[in-house]
Specification:
By secondary structure, the protein is of the alpha+beta class. The chain has three domains: about 10-165, Globin-like (Orthogonal Bundle), CATH 1.10.490; about 195-305; about 315-395. The chain is built from 17 helices and six strands. Strands 1, 2, 3, 4, 5 and 6 form a six-stranded mixed beta sheet that branches. The longest helix has about 35 residues, at about 130-165. The protein is flat, with a radius of gyration of 26 Å. InterPro entries: CdaR-like_regulators, CdaR_GGDEF, PucR_C-HTH_dom, PucR_C-HTH_sf. Belongs to the CdaR family. Pfam families: GGDEF_2 (PF17853), HTH_30 (PF13556).
Length: about 400
């Protein structure tokens, strides 16, 4: 990775452009993220909230790494990005069963980043000879940098795969994967140390904080098991930031107060091997809903979000439905929206709704009357639509 050093004037132009790239516009980052997570080949990454978040972090890390190097030494070759984000995603990709073909996302990101860099370069000079030299050096630098970084991630993935295919965790993960795929597995219970002929509640336990202590995830798995009963849970490391957990029975309230970085998505309880699979899929659906809607809720169950998960598959359509159905109620104070939502949940019984909200019945009625004035049409006869719209709003961040 070498080339003739550029002229002092071109080095100065590259340095100026790199300073711009060090403070990227939000729409630039959004464009890179959208490209790296688009397409059928990248669906396994885009549909996984933890992998998608790790990809976005890596995109930013790579952009800032290259820009900072060119502020320090404009036009010089940039070594592979050896910071935490790109190396951490190698571990997560392997633990999700993905191979090096997933790294194609970085080639797509390179193309978008190069196009954005051309825009920056064209704003630096009107001299065509200078611009030609800037682009010749910098585009070669971007390509070589991405090559080096992808190679480093690929090497780390091979090392992670070698480590993962040895030891008890590898056997447990392989057994769980076979069960989730519907394959019959002889001796699965003894391999897992977990009974399959019982009622299961699955959970996805994860963190959005890249600096979180991973031991918090394991403590959350233990808290789930304690809330469900005396049996030990089954916990599988799905990625550095995610655990897949199964417990027997139905967990009561799960305390996450001492685990501030942890989020938990629960599946619906279900029985037997089929229930083992179905509850896990429910938990994944719940997690993806929370992330898709930008919800800040740290604990959610499938039973709470099933309707919202179904009606928000088309996110843009769901947004239009909420606005069209609620009108000005969409932006009303929270206590007004909560009054209507609770009133509908209590089958339009004002006394029960007031008791559930710990408020006086007359106060509730005043809030309902105000809501009726804000709605495009009266609540009477439209409770189902209004209730669905309010549920979407409740879970949306």
């Amino acid at each position: 990775m070498s080339w003739e050093p550029p002229s002092p004037r071109v080095r100065e132009l590259i340095r100026q452009g790199a300073e711009v790239a060090l403070n990227p516009r939000p729409e630039w980052l959004a464009e890179i993220d959208a490209a790296t997570l688009a397409g059928e080949a990248r669906r396994p990454i885009a549909s996984d909230p933890v992998l998608a978040a790790a990809t976005r972090r890596t995109n930013r890390s790579n952009l800032l790494f290259w820009a900072a190097a060119n502020v320090r030494a404009p036009g010089q070759p940039v070594p592979a990005n050896d910071e935490a984000a790109p190396l951490a995603i190698a571990r997560d990709l392997v633990r999700r069963g993905l191979d090096e073909s997933a790294l194609d996302a970085y080639r797509v990101g390179e193309a978008v980043a190069a196009r954005l860099w051309v825009r920056i370069a064209c704003s630096l000079t009107t001299d065509t000879a200078e611009l030609r030299e800037v682009l010749d050096v910098s585009l070669r630098s971007i390509a070589a940098f991405v090559d080096a970084t992808v190679t480093a991630i690929s090497l780390r993935m091979r090392a992670e795969r070698a480590a993962l295919t040895s030891g008890t965790h590898a056997e447990r993960r392989e057994t769980v994967s076979l069960l989730l795929d519907g394959a019959p597995v002889l001796g699965a219970e003894s391999r897992l140390g977990y009974a399959l002929d019982r009622t299961h509640t699955a959970a996805v336990v994860w963190t959005d904080d890249p600096d979180a202590d991973p031991r918090q995830l394991d403590r959350a798995a233990d808290a789930l098991a304690a809330a469900a009963g005396p049996d030990r849970p089954l916990s599988v490391i799905a990625s550095a930031a995610t655990r897949w957990v199964w417990v027997h029975g139905r967990p009561a309230s799960v305390a996450l107060d001492r685990l501030p970085a942890v989020r938990v998505a629960l599946g619906a309880p279900a029985s037997g091997v089929d229930g083992f699979r179905r509850s896990h899929q429910d938990a994944l659906t719940t997690q993806r809903l929370l992330v898709r809607l930008g919800s800040t809720r740290r604990l959610a169950g499938f039973a709470e979000v099933e309707l919202v998960a179904l009606v928000t598959q088309d996110a843009a359509g769901a947004d239009r439905f909420v606005t069209r159905t609620l009108g000005d109620l969409e932006t009303a104070p929270a206590e007004i929206r909560d009054a209507v939502r609770t009133f509908i949940a209590e089958q339009c019984n004002a006394s029960r709704a007031a008791a559930r909200l710990f408020t006086h019945r007359n106060t509730l009625l005043r809030r309902l009357a105000r809501a009726d004035r804000l709605l495009p049409a009266p609540l009477a006869g439209r409770a189902v639509d209004v209730g669905a719209a309010l549920e979407i709003l409740h879970w949306r961040g």
